[in-house]
Predict the 3D structure of the following.
Amino acid sequence: MNVQNLMAELERKHPGESEYLQAVREVLESIEEVYNQHPEFEKAKIVERIVEPDRIFTFRVTWVDDKGEVQTNLGYRVQFNSAIGPYKGGLRFHKAVNPSMLKFLGFEQTFKNALTTLPMGGAKGGSDFDPVGKSDAEIMRFCQAFMTELWNNIGVDTDVPAGDVGVGGREIGFLNGMYQKLARKYHTGVLTGKGMTWGGSILRPEATGFGALYFVQHMLQMAGKKLEGATVAISGFGNVAWGAAKKATELGAKVIAISGPDGVIYNPNGMTDEKIDYMLELRASNRNIVAPFAEKFKDATFTPGKKAWSIKCDIALPCAFQNELNGDDAAELLKNGTWCCAEVSNMGCTPEAIHAFQKAGILFAPGKAVNAGGVATSGLEMTQNCMHLSWSGKEVDERLHTIMASIHEACVEFGKQPNGYIDYVKGANIAGFMKVARAMLEQGII
Ligand code: GLU
């Protein structure tokens, strides 16, 4: 394999798909050396096959808003790779959703899911529907219209969607209701992230954030550092940021910043239960602003237009969107003494930011390892659904712990450099890639 040639070919085939090309380049650069030691991969053209999704469904979603006006959005499902199990991955509702974004997410999901140790292939889907400012009734009508097109292409053993940005428990409920009505199938395992009374798993809402903090604990332990007393800056205030803030606080760290598209909250005294619960209210309001946090809690201040990375912190946790932490942000964090950055969002850091962190020798880990606890717990939800039972919180948490520990171990195994530095990007990419590549090889040319 030659990364430059492969990338040139992909750029020609998929011009302008910047997020997708960025995600592919990162993985190919990481695996090049190992790949070239395996002529059997080259012979089966594994890399040429693994970078393309198996198929993409694109559909029109038409619905009626509260004013009685007809609205039309685009819907997608990218079924990326099924070599190790049925397609699995979230749905993203955001105004910027396009095929490039969902292809990057589906590609990442394939390797992330491989890291979880569970049998799940990679997929992603969503719509350019913008939930900001929408009423619950509008969200319901949109979800129903979206499922009218999607239902025939998903199923317990084929493709199991879940949430992502803009899709949480409320949306999964509306989607599942419509699925059952259309498909006349009532298995609880067609979607994950369900409510607790209709097949959901305890801890699934918390799992992405909790798993991320378990991963960070392992990283810190290995580096001889501690979470207790560390200051943490988190971007975002949605489901993932909420879980991360909750677990970080529980483990003795001080969450001193959260943020939104409108600006940053500086929270010098850290989180309380009330503050953490309020993050959920903020998300449910559909306004997509974080400023009200400082109106409600007087010890916090809001600065418009600033990012979480403007706050001096020990640990930075991007929890919102891709490329939300760029080279300039990394330089500011490093100047302020940050010694760990763990991506909780998918591809939260730009390549320049990752390079800056690694060059400075600070701890850095990529989203596909750090945030894999979310989809891993979706996998545990699927298992419970298939067994027609539900596990206790303790049982799910223990399994999540074990999975995050094994992901960390895999990253160390494949990412340890001769000078002792652990390149978690390389480690996660090689470990995930090797598993999927071997599965493809053993199943022939298809
Ligand atoms: N959207 C989440 C992710 O990026 C969760 C996917 C799932 O649970 O299937 O991994």
The chain has a mean pLDDT of 98. The chain has 17 helices and twelve strands.
